[in-house]
Amino acid sequence: MAPAPPLEPAAQAAHGVVAAGEPGAAAASAAAAGGAAAAGAALPSAEVEDAVRRQQIYDAVCAGRLEEALQQVDQHYGLPALDASPGLSFRLKVQRFLELVRARAPPQSILEYGRAQLAPAAAGPEDEELLSDAVSLLAYAEPEASPCGTLLLPGARAELGDRLNGALLAARGRPLAPALERLYRQAAVTLDELRRAHEPRALVLDLHTACMGR
């Protein structure tokens, strides 16, 4: 695999080269947002809006808001866009099941969802194995500590968000990692970390406005 290209200054900031609280941290956050804004200015507004929209969908998945994410997919892309990634629709349904487990919803309601939405949709051995692993979580008082508890890790949400994002890009006939989106996400990560560190100037910076100009 070829080595990754050197990061631009804004991307370096997003990857933590300049840490929150260090001298220049706020400048790094501004540079990250400024880089995203400059990249956005060079592209048609429709592409910028699409990148921002997909970021919002990704964020919703990573926060466990599956219904919100799917509503946005349906509204802006159409649910057939999920077909660009085989098995993605089923994986999203499983994630909804996992979010119910994570929220400690009543076991009966979780099982009813599984019977109605998952069992009929399982299309092969891999789907059936994933479904079995997900259902096994209900046998544990602390499902996160169970053998299949990795399904509940934040990284599983992020992986699913990336997969969904890739399907939406494919549905648009776009490359899987356009430069603008990488820069926007890097800037978003930087700003989020700086806000958690209570960096004052990061708290007042609106990345969406910086990129979209409104």
Automatic annotation (TrEMBL):
Domain of life (superkingdom): Eukaryota
UniProt-listed PROSITE patterns: CTLH
Pfam families xref list: CTLH
Domain (CTLH): residue spans on this chain: 50-108
Coiled-coil stretches noted in the UniProt entry, renumbered to this chain: none
Protein name according to UniProt: CTLH domain-containing protein
Organism: Monoraphidium neglectum
